[in-house]
Amino acid sequence: MIVHVDGSQGPCEVARHRLTTPGKPSICDEHYPPRPAGALERKPRARSAEERAFLELGEGAERWLIAAAAAGAQRVRRKMAEAVDMAKLHGPEPVCDALEACAQAGRFADGDLAAVLAHRQSANVIVFPTRACEDASLQSSTRSWEGFGG
């Protein structure tokens, strides 16, 4: 029980919390003012032409930037420039989608965006033929080499 002492009326009950065990406080959110917007709820603002070009890729770029900052990613400006360059080659929509996937998966390391983008475009990858088995090979046997080197 929380009591406020007023000089004219004496003590009066202000709030009552349920009893808990030691080390587990009882907190009522109604007793505190609303929390200010945190870093994850802020919208990024471009301060340079490079940042503006990155954010113009779309919402995936914005989400990637927020998540990368929250995760403490390193060399963010360079990775943003790489994303803009990739958008010039592959178009902004696939890069924006790949940035969104990276943000959701928490992938902010060097080469992660390129790997995700390549994986998403893997339908265009050349498939190499499998190696023929020894029974179907036209190469002659290597049995004659057994005695050498031994």
Describe it:
This protein has 5 helices and 2 strands; from the N terminus they run E-E-H-H-H-H-H. By secondary structure, it is mainly alpha-helical. It folds into 2 domains: 2-31, no CATH class; 46-122, no CATH class. The protein has a two-stranded antiparallel sheet. Helix 4 (92-105) crosses helix 5 (112-120). The longest helix is centred in the middle third of the chain and has 15 residues, at 76-90. It is elongated. The termini are far apart. The model has no long low-confidence stretch (mean pLDDT 81).
In short:
This protein is mainly alpha-helical. It folds into two domains: 2-31, no CATH class; 46-122, no CATH class. The chain is 39% helix and 7% strand.
Q: Which descriptor suits the 3D outline?
A: elongated
Domain unit count? 2
SS content category: mainly alpha
- How helical, in percent, are the residues? 25-40%
Are there runs of 5+ residues with pLDDT below 50, and where?
none
Tally of individual helices? 5
Q: SSE order, as H and E?
A: EEHHHHH
For the structure shown, list the relevant keywords.
single chain, elongated, 5 helices, 150 residues, mainly alpha, two-stranded antiparallel sheet
List the helices and strands and how they pair.
Elements: E1 2-6, E2 10-15, H1 49-55, H2 59-71, H3 76-90, H4 92-105, H5 112-120
Antiparallel strand pairs: 1-2
Helix pairs in contact: 1-3, 2-4, 3-4, 4-5
